[in-house]
């Protein structure tokens, strides 16, 4: 969970080159995470799914992410 928290922080404040350099290798991490959904239940996702969300979506964990070039 610390790795995911660090990845989320880097995505919020990092430069686009640093974001891609440090987050793309995490696509190879297939460990499971428990994520709390809006209705209060927990959903199992994998680290690579969360990293994909950070790199491709505009919102994550109900927070608007800064835009990064593709």
UniProtKB/TrEMBL annotation:
Record localization: Nucleus
Species annotation: Amborella trichopoda
Broad class of where this protein is predominantly found: nucleus
Task performed by this protein: Required for pre-mRNA splicing.
Transmembrane segments: none
Key words, A-Z: mRNA processing, mRNA splicing, Nucleus, Spliceosome
One GO CC term, this protein: spliceosomal complex
Family, as annotated: Belongs to the PRP38 family.
Superkingdom of source: Eukaryota
Protein name: Pre-mRNA-splicing factor 38
InterPro entries: PRP38
GO biological process: mRNA splicing, via spliceosome
